[in-house]
Prior knowledge:
The complex is a heterodimer. Helix content of chain A is 26%, strand content 28%. By secondary structure, chain A is of the alpha+beta class. Chain B has helices at residues 33-40, 74-77, 96-103, 113-126, 132-138, 149-162, and strands spanning 12-18, 21-27, 59-62, 65-68, 81-83. In chain B, β3 (59-62) and β4 form a beta hairpin. The mean pLDDT of chain B is 95. Chain B has two domains: 12-49 and 60-84, Roll (Ubiquitin-like (UB roll)), CATH 3.10.20.30; 96-162, Orthogonal Bundle (DNA polymerase, domain 1), CATH 1.10.150. Classes of the chains: A alpha+beta, B alpha+beta. Chains A and B meet through α1 and α16 of A and α3, α4 and α6 of B. One FE2/S2 (inorganic) cluster is lined by residues 48-51, 53-58, 68, 70 of chain B.
Amino acid sequence: MTATRTVTFPAGIVEAGLGTVTREIPASEPPPWPPNAELTWIGKDVPRLNGREKVTGATRYTVDIRLPGMLHARFLRSPLPSAELRKLDTSAAAALAGVRAVVVLARSGDRLRYAGQPVAAVAAVSPGVAGEALAAIDAEFRPLPFVVDMDEARAPDAPLVYDEASVPKGNPSGFPAAPGLPVVGNVRGPAVVRRGDPAQGFAAADIVVEGEYRTQVQTHSCLEPHAIVADWRADGLTVYMSTQFTSGVRQELAALFGLPLNRVRVVVDGMGGGFGSKSQLGVYGRTAVELSRLAGLPVRLALNRHEEQTDAGNRPGTSQRVRLGAKRDGTLTALAIESHGTAGVALGAGIGFFAERIYTCPNFETLQHDVFVNAGPGCAMRGPGNTPGAHGLEQAIDTLAERLGLDPLALRDRIDPSKARREERRIGAERIGWSRRHAPGADPGPVKRGLGVAQSLWMSNVQTNVACEVRVLRDGSVEALSSVQDIGTGIGTVMAQVVAEVLGLRPAEITVRIGDTEFPPGGPSYGSRTTASITPPLRTAATRVLAELGREAARMLNAAPEELEARDGRLRVKSDPARSLAFRDAAALLRTDRISAVESRADDYPGFRRRMPDAAMALEDLGGVQFAEVAVDTETGAIHVERVVAVHDCGRPMNRLLLESQVQGGVLMGVSYALLERRVMDRRTGLMVNADLEHYKLAGAHDTPEIEVVILENLQGSSATDAYGIAEPANIATAPAIANAVYNAIGVRLASLPMTPDAVLAALGKTGRS
Amino acid sequence: MTAPDMAGPGKTAITLAVNGTSRQLELEPRTTLAEALRNALGLTGTKIACDRGACSACTVWLNGQPVLSCMALAIDAAGQEITTIEGLAQGDVLHPVQEAFIEHDAMQCGFCTPGMVMSCAALLERDPHPDAAAVRDAIAGHYCRCGTYPHVVAATLAAAERKP
Ligand code: FES
Ligand code: FES
């Protein structure tokens, strides 16, 4: 048994009134932090510490890395959506001057299942020579029947993407997670989640609403493409990779190439966007390492934009039939959803757990199906499952409120048990001016305005397989180390804030070394878990090195170590601050050049909701409520999102400036999803027709609404920092909030994404096209 | 110096004036300015995200005007004054736009940031006191997948305020 002690934490939502909670915590854990107002650096707008490198172009991204002798790799890919590889002869390519290695990824007779599927790869002294080598590969593809449209793929006579033997069994991205589901034709599932008795619940309802909602395939569209530089040497493998998970990639590489972990190093500095798509090694990563192994030279493999849009992951498209049963007062009696989704040739096209958790409803059922089509594999993307899932359910709730004659916020007050979201609704309604909301379609002119609201829910994820180190050197300089990577959130800055807070220094005085598996394993940057995972052990480690330093200082100051505090660059006696020692002078007393503490993530104090081998879910889910104000031009069909108010919670906010950036990013990705983005597959050729950035539309500056961000301070006494994530919640509610606002504006519901001018005009009956 | 009438397809001598320094290069005439800067000169602050004029990540200045370096040939840039993100600061002193980008957190992953900075700094050169709409116009061609536009606009307005 580890020793414990009982401590009292501030708890509750600071904005709504704070209480306390008493917990039994391991004796080694630091004491409770007060609310942010009483802290020096935590919760403050500290600008990111690597900002200077970013604005001067000095940050090194994977695509910027050039090693001596480095080769350039390129893929030969299937030109057809479905084909049998009849012949693959790479001998002429291998014999070309300047070609150093060739890897074959498919064999003659293999079935290729999407246009762009890698078939072979070459590494050569220049990209030009690599291109010539691709042209010299003798490959023959026999076209096979294909299907790229999800509805067509569900038809009984649709061409089959997989036969029984080849169909994927497990589910790598875990949405839904059930293995071993039945497969009929191209449809796998359903994965069923059920509680209570839905049939009885619908029978007991005073009112039943039903709707069908559709979401499109969205591509991650990271501005830095998927890229890797692999350097295989006799004494070990070093990989520079644009990745969300350095230590995970190291594990994959060690297992795949039979290397001990201590001979594999994965490094990332600048990381140009992942959004879920750079979580794993991937075929491209594996291939680059294999080419480097064969050539005995470093190999660079960076996808070009076409490859990036077609074979670097995507958010699966869905169709969802949502049924809600309710009493006249709004109480839900039944909630049933049947969904079909497609992640191309992959699994994981469900609608998540949004409906399962967000509202109180005794009788519940989801039936989720994966539909295979001949298109590039989907993967997790910012709020996977829940983002499309919220789009369906939050519109259905809006419809239910209208049918019941209730305000959408009042209905949610009745059925949503989350305290955080209740407060978020209150604050958001005030900020957006909800009382101005009129009846649907009530504006008289051609440009009609509307207000809408939708909610967010995501897991409070924690990686427990996470460690970090804090060092104090004898000159008083300080380092914080972990393999955790900064994918744009500014986690390194938050780490510096934590260490600075504990040691009484300034964040800029902390040197943060991250993005390298030479340091303690930092866990992944996905699932909105980085801050929650890394900051508690970092605070604990900093507290430990401070205690060690304090022992030396206390001797000097004739005080007991526990009488000291670290503040303003000094260690001083709490009761008599005049007796103090500069931090640097205290460090000079150390017996060795450096002291250090390594800590790993302890369990949340009140335990977890769910425990997995390397990860866990905290007890309280993350909330978030977003309000949108739109103007719809009923003559052109254009929707202009004028304002979004995004009210969120993430436990203890660590840095409001950085959090605001992330929430704005989530909202913008949501605006883009709602109005603009759509992967277009040509039914006749099976090819993606907008695999670029000019026809695949992303939101730009002119599509950007005024975004107001409010972040609650929701203290729970759950860890040494009480911090959780925000990236995904910030994205989940946006599209349905806009859809509900559009309904409020024009009185017609657009159930499908994206809500293009075309779709608006069609919904208004103003176009011949359908 | 003007470009020769006929060159290529092999390498040809090209002189580029980059950030105030003259650089002699041997490049194939088909080499884009973005490739020349990144590969031949190691100035990797200029980013390529689409390589065909759709995202503005590769924005540099030619004679003070923002251009897409993925859509310009290096050979055509000969004889013009090229400014890249590495050349914007005066030694250790950052350009006011760079300062303001840091203060207002006008970056996340940072991949689009060099291009954004170049466009916003160019805007202040031609219009020292723009309003928010003018900043949005100046970055209308830039894509930022992380969604930094609101902070980019705020930072640029703040930089304009600071500039005398
Ligand atoms: S890289 Fe030049 S415009 Fe996109
Ligand atoms: S900061 Fe990531 S693309 Fe703009």
